[in-house]
Amino acid sequence: MFDDTYLTITAPSEGLYKEKGSKFLAFAYPVRTETEVKEHLERIKKEYFDARHHCYAYILGPHKDAFRINDDGEPSGTAGKPIHGQLLSTNLTDVCVIVVRYFGGIKLGVSGLINAYKTAARDALDNATIVEKTIDIGYHLHFEYPLMNDVMRILKDYDIPPRNPKYELDCELDFFIRQSLSVQVYDAIAKLRGVTITSL
After folding, report:
1. What is each CA distance from 115 to 70, 106, 108, 181, in whole angstroms?
2. pLDDT over 90 at 3, yes or no
3. CB 2, CB 88: distance < 8 Å
4. CB-based burial of residue 180 (10 Å sphere; 0-12 exposed, 13-18 middle, 19+ buried)?
5. Which of 89, 167, 173, 164 is nearest to 125 (CA)?
6. What is the model's pLDDT at position 1?
7. What is the pLDDT of residues 4-51, one digit of tens each?
């Protein structure tokens, strides 16, 4: 059985942690690409230009196969890693968390820093709305008009809305189906003679 769902957040959220005069402002964003991560990071660096550090971590993709951590000048492993750890412990993906630190004049030590970045990141994620999404597979169909009813019956059986439909003598449409049902639907459509199905 496919594991075809994943958790992400619906909108940006914020968190805060204070320790010995240092302030840790955390910002969580839903992201799909590294470019989006860079855009958020550049904006935060401009907005909080007077902060000492802008540390972050992100995880991308339904299978969590792309991730990065950055300590931005903090001792190695004290910032990006604990932020990343919070993303892992909440089982989230397609999320970037940036934590901005204003130094309060008193050093927190390695364990103090780890705790501060972890707690700030957790606060932002606790304030986020988490949703479950499905991993969807896309297909393109090409068929002649007389086959329309057969194609539409299969789509209706699986509650699939057609996308970009072109209903002429030659018909075309796209659709997306959750991964766990993709083989069943593909097989049902492939049995229709005269229908070409290709992956998007």
Report:
1. 16, 15, 10, 43
2. no
3. no
4. middle
5. 89
6. 43
7. 899 999 999 999 999 999 999 999 999 999 999 999 999 999 999 999
- CB burial of 13-47 (b: ≥16 within 10 Å; e: otherwise) equals bebebebeebbbbbbbbbbeeeebbeebbeebeee
CA distance 198 to 113: 51
Percent of the chain past pLDDT 70, that is, above it, reads: 99
CA 167/CA 76 separation, integer angstroms = 59
What tokens does 78 get? 């004290």
| Residue of 14, 6, 4 lying closest to 128 (CA atoms) | 14
Count, in order, helices (H) and strands (E) of the chain: 5, 11
Those residues with Cβ within 8 angstroms of residue 49's Cβ, 6 or more apart along the chain or in another chain: none
Q: Identify which of 9, 1, 33 has the alpha carbon closest to the alpha carbon of residue 131.
A: 9
Total count of residues recorded for the chain:
200
Which tokens sit at 43? 């904006």
Tokens of 198: 């290709």
Sheet holding 22-30, edge to edge: 13-19, 22-30, 95-102, 53-60, 66-70
Structure tokens at 27: 């910002």
Task: Specify the 3-state DSSP secondary structure of 79.
Answer: coil
Spatial CA neighbour of 99 closest among 53, 130, 40, 38: 53
| Gap between the Cα atoms of 102 and 52, Å rounded | 6
